[in-house]
Amino acid sequence: MRCIIYVFSGTGNTMLVAEEYAASLGPETHIAAIDSSFMDLPSPNGYQLVGIGYPVHAFNAPEIVERFARELKPSVHQNLFIFHTGGEGLHFNDTSSVRIRRILRKDFTILSERHYVMPYNMIFRHSDAMVKHMVTYMRKLVPLHVSSILAKRTEGMRLMPFSRIVSSVLRIEWLYAKLQGPTMRAGDSCTGCGLCARRCPMGNITVVNGRPVFGRNCSLCVRCSFSCPVDAISIGLLNGWRVSGPYEVDRVMADQTIPDTIPIEKLPRLYRKYYREADAMLGKRS
Ligand SMILES: Cc1cc2nc3c(=O)[nH]c(=O)nc-3n(C[C@H](O)[C@H](O)[C@H](O)COP(=O)(O)O)c2cc1C
Ligand code: SF4
Ligand code: SF4
């Protein structure tokens, strides 16, 4: 089956999930990264299945994902699946898709929507054990979800009460992202290497006189601060929640001293419901 997955990913979590979907869907799956030049991405025509993935930001999809969804116009009605990642598994994260679902359902049959808990890139850093637990579960769940998609079962779409209202209120994050851009700074340890500017998916950073300058086109994806080799970037008002530096997922997954998963009763309370539901889905109800 020819499939295209459009994915926006700030710090790599959602891209990891997209790669897992691609591995399960087979070799004819193409991953297209959404960035500020998304108009150049391949159209969905000629594909039999379309996926869209994004990180949840303040219970919303990042603005660029909604803008992208508005431009996604296949010539014939197509099947589509949505997935998103977040630092926790609250059902409220499904609120994030309310608006893009409304946009997409004109041209697509939305077969499934799934939320994957991945390491938080904001608020706090997870331990290596927690990272392994999250990635291990995600890798078990995706093939299961893909088999539902291929069987054309409509699954996984749930909305909490008041989700439309909450989603609308929290869209203030989009405005905040624009205001916050210019408040970002590179500190004295900046070497002027320009990596942050090359990696910014929004083209929001320019290097002027050897120093990065941040514009108003920020999506708050925090890729710049994660990527900076000397951890020099302060992210404005949110700096107190900054998670410095990337998670080393490959190292953690290869480390045999770290157990694959953590027993549910030993997980922080916030995560237990999500993983109980995941276990039920995987057929080993605990
Ligand atoms: C500005 C911002 C807001 C976030 N808001 C939420 C949220 O509402 N719910 C959630 O579960 N995670 C939230 N997160 C965490 C990310 O969604 C999570 O770490 C995600 O997996 C990052 O994906 P990425 O690496 O593909 O960008 C937020 C992260 C950022 C940077
Ligand atoms: S990646 Fe870090 S060190 Fe390099 S230019 Fe950006 S802020 Fe400076
Ligand atoms: S400036 Fe940083 S946080 Fe903003 S879009 Fe670019 S990489 Fe993401």
What can you tell me about this protein's structure?
With 286 residues, the protein is of the alpha/beta class. It folds into two domains: 3-165, Flavodoxin domain (Rossmann fold, 3-Layer(aba) Sandwich); 172-241, Alpha-Beta Plaits. It is 34% helix and 17% strand. The strands form three sheets. Strands 2-1-3-4-5 form a five-stranded parallel sheet, with helices on one face. Helix 1 packs parallel to helix 4 (128-150). The longest helix has 23 residues, at 128-150. It is globular and about 55 Å long. It starts with a strand and ends in a 5-residue tail after the last helix. The relative contact order is 0.15. The model has no long low-confidence stretch (mean pLDDT 92). The chain binds flavin mononucleotide (FMN) and iron/sulfur cluster (2 copies). One iron/sulfur cluster binds at residues 10, 200-202, 204-205, 214, 218-224.
Largest sheet: 5 strands, parallel
Number of beta-strand segments: 9
The radius of gyration over CA amounts to 19 Å
By DSSP (H or I, 4+ residues per run), the number of helices equals: 10
Instruction: Give the class from helix and strand content and strand pairing.
Output: alpha/beta
Gap between N and C termini: 35 Å
Average pLDDT works out at 92
Under CATH, the topology of the largest domain can be stated as Rossmann fold
Briefly, what CATH class of the largest domain?
A: Alpha Beta
Count of folded domains: 2
Q: In which range does the helix fraction lie?
A: 25-40%
Please state the second-level CATH architecture of the largest domain: 3-Layer(aba) Sandwich
